[in-house]
Amino acid sequence: MATFLYKIGRLTFRRRRLVALVWVALLALAGFGAASASTATSSSFSIPGTEAQKAFDLLEERFPGGSADGATARVVFKAPDGQKVTDAGNKAEVGKIVAELKSGSDQIASVADPFKANAVSENGSTAYISVSYEVSSMELTDGTREALEDAGEAARSSGMTVEIGGDALQVMPHTGATEVIGIAVAAVVLVITFGSLIAAGLPLLTALVGVGIGVSLITALANVLDLGSTTSTLAMMIGLAVGIDYALFIVSRYRAELAEGREREEAAGRAVGTAGSAVVFAGLTVVIALVGLAVVNIPMLTKMGAAAAGTVAIAVLIALTLVPALLGFAGKRVMGRKARKAAEAENKPDAKPNMGTRWARFVLRKPVWVLLAGVIGLGVIAVPAASLEMGLPDDGSQPKSTTQRQAYDLLSDGFGPGFNGPLLVVVDTKGSADGKTAVDQVSQEIEGIGHVAAVTPATFNKAGDAATITVIPEDRPSSVQTEDVVHAIRDAGADVRSETGAVVLVTGATAMNIDFSEKMNDALLPYLALVVGLAFLLLMVVFRSLLVPLKAALGFLLSVVAALGAVVAVFQWGWLGSLFGVEQTGPIMSMMPIFMVGVVFGLAMDYEVFLVTRMREAYVHGETPGQAVVTGFRHGARVVSAAAVIMIAVFAGFIGSSESMIKMIGFSLAIAVFFDAFVVRMAIVPAVLALLGERAWWLPRRLDRVLPNVDVEGEGLRANLADGGPAGGERELSRV
């Protein structure tokens, strides 16, 4: 592979104008497609195989035209102290709002008058108007939202408290200024690392080109492929991070080759052949991990992973082609005068050891203490992960300053906590001899279940072969008691089916959230085993060792669990929450842990490959295991540290997002990269290698013969080039 990539590097360097033109054309075409595409809507949310999804599908079939997936809103009124909403003046004001809403938009499907729909609390202090729309929340026009927001202004002026809940006010998320700050930090790190504005700007430019193409393609295909509104943001987050890092490794190796006196084209070829091999492997691990999210069998998560994986693939291609092409345009300016002097000084035999060398020697002197400090430190941070609670957000998780949260609290106070999470029971009576009797039995069974506050009368469809029953739990939607109610209804439904033949299914937002969280819980450990097993096999091929990949996989597990512990402490317990803009604590997003595992797996393997390949290269060339560790850190620690800081800065930039999932994923990826790069790879890895010595690189002979040789270190390339000067093999390759 290294030899093939060497040819690619030299070819793109020579044909740099054509290569640059092709990438600019691709960016322009993708941008034109994005500009021509209609605005992306929210992705359709489905959980195949769950009872809640089966019930939802049955509703679509038996109750056509019901706008089951349409947006909803609740306009909640609370009368002033000492008054009731049923008082003549207040009742008249509510009636005006009902009339305004009905005529306010042609997207409205229905508006329920609270005095006719029994939507007034027992003490008469609170009432609500239910509004249903024919389209999803992301398809609502600005005029429709404005009509909803303006509807309560007149009532507020009369003295009543008016708040609006539901997903009708949901808007596209924004990331805020912190995203730009993250990119600015990355630029500063690159300037410090390279000491040259040209060399620093090149990774940023190529990463932005890759992200521009990836995000534009996602935008252009969003409606065709039913991609959610957050997909492009996640792709941008990951694409920026890996795009900068991959280009950083190529440019860094190119400068090292120049410092050794090689011609520019030859340096570009060798940089792509060596560092490019690691980029391909690292990018492949990220892509496999993201595409592997398909095993969870949740379409939304599968599409998010595939879109992000596509952006990573583009970043790899750009690193292998556009980066060497731009290096050709940059000329010798990629190596500033100070950088050249520093490189010459570093290559002298009596040169002062750099920071990486000094740190590696310290670890070799105190391997046990460094190992214990790293493992115990991450272990302590991981403790909160034992209290991980997963769920999906509702209006109760919104900041207290929002009208959605205040409407949620008003409904809880007036009607009970469970009123914000009603359960919808769907009864399919096609297989029952007497449908009405079966439905009555279902209602009676549900009324006898604990923690059920109310059961509404059944509503049959026109054909009379299906009915819906609304169940109000006593407790809040995300509580354990409400989850128990859902399972109790399903257990009772199984008994009813055996007795009458009627099928009982439970759905609604609360039931969907419960099923989604349970599915993600069930998938987390198998997916974790999959990626850890994959990491072990891939690293065994790369490093031709058993213990090195085992150490890498265990280190990855440690950093992931520690990151989960930090997420729980901040977002669930509220520790330092204000520092990260967390206004409301609550359960951790159900999809966050598994998505984090997929992304961090790939990124962790990046640092493992870039750092340890240098160690193995030194070891196979005759250095002792300890010397090999020092050599690996002397050449790789500075670049890996810079790459990690850049990635942390980019991910942390998304913590300012208004979307809670983006905020949480940005924090989790940033903290996971910090733990993995600076604690696991920089401390635990050299400590373990120091303790293992020669045994770290042991591989059974039979296995050595079976495993393919991918030549990530470029040993085959150096043999072909007769490293040390232009040989016949080098001249032959240069003609390709």
Automatic annotation (TrEMBL):
Its main location: membrane. It is a multi-pass membrane protein. It is found in: Cell membrane. The chain crosses the membrane at residues 180-200, 207-225, 231-251, 272-296, 308-331, 368-388, 524-543, 555-576, 588-607, 639-658, 664-692. The keyword Cell membrane applies. Keywords: Cell membrane, Membrane, Transmembrane, Transmembrane helix. Residues 204-329 form the SSD domain. Pfam families: MMPL. Belongs to the resistance-nodulation-cell division (RND) (TC 2.A.6) family. MmpL subfamily. This is RND superfamily putative drug exporter. It comes from Streptomyces clavifer. The lineage of its organism: Bacteria, Bacillati, Actinomycetota, Actinomycetes, Kitasatosporales.
